[in-house]
Amino acid sequence: MDNYESFSITRRFFECGEFEFKINSNKLHTDKLVKNNLILLGKDYNKVGLILHREFVYGEGGQETETLLIKGVMLQGLAKRRIIIHDTGQEFDSCIGNQETIMKYFVNRNCVNPTDLNRRIDNLIVAVDKKRGENDRWRGAYESLDEKLKEIGEYSKLGWNIVLDHKQKKFIFDVMQGKNLTVNQNTNPPVIFRSDFNNIKTRHYTESIINSRNSLYIGSKEKLVLNLGDITGFERMETFLDSTSEEVEDIKKEGLVKLEEIKELKTFELEINPNSTFVYEKDYDLGDIVTIQDKKLKVTMDSRIVEIQEVYGNDGMKLKATFGTRIPSLLAVLKRMVK
């Protein structure tokens, strides 16, 4: 559909993306915009949305003001529909191997080849394992699958996606790595965002330690097992994590993952000119590491593109990108407090 009023796509490297679509409800084929239907967002099969929400807004001006608002998630949202289920008699499910192997293991066990066939997602397959990432060990029990993939991904710096292969008529889960496009490497042509290159329209830089900690005590309330983090003195900020794990390596992994989650937040949010100097999805894309320079702030940052928002309206496309750490929503902060 290209006769929309507006729509936006938010792509995320470590977690599920989303979209919002607004169209006059009297336009052709709007009856097909119903929950659980798929919508191709543009001409690219890696941008397919799963409809979750529809609402009608009726104005006073008759049919011209009758608007249909559609919201949903990208195909990654299929992982939101499953939790990690372990075998009967076990306390959790675990996997040892490369980090990509582990991510694909949890998807295979809970979506593609689950013990309970009612849990299988038809036409979902897992791409060939390239064994990227370090050798590692992860476990899970009753956690949302997409949250576990996010946790492993942020720790290992590997993203993930589900795309539509229209020829095979399959959904394909795969792990993404991103390219190094910084000025300090010579393998790929570098990508630099700076205002005097005319490739930045607006910029928003944030440094924050409001919710961060850099020293972690982890164990049970009866027995302290480990202290992680080497900051001392005035700048040391401590917290405690209760762990039910019994193996020291598992406890250490929990602690390192938590420290990564609560580290200092540094993020650049830029509105980018998509066709100036560097072309979006040709010279750079989601997950790539690029260089951002801000002379006024005296900041130079090599950082990963963790989120890209494409906003389409009457004035064309606006492109907004988040580099570094995505600022957590209130819901994400509350979830973190509950853990």
Automatic annotation (TrEMBL):
Q: Which InterPro entries match?
A: Gp28/Gp37-like_dom (IPR029432)
In this chain the Gp28/Gp37-like domain maps to 1-325
Q: Pfam families, per this entry?
A: Sipho_Gp37 (PF14594)
Q: What is this protein called?
A: Gp28/Gp37-like domain-containing protein
Q: Which organism is it from?
A: Clostridium botulinum
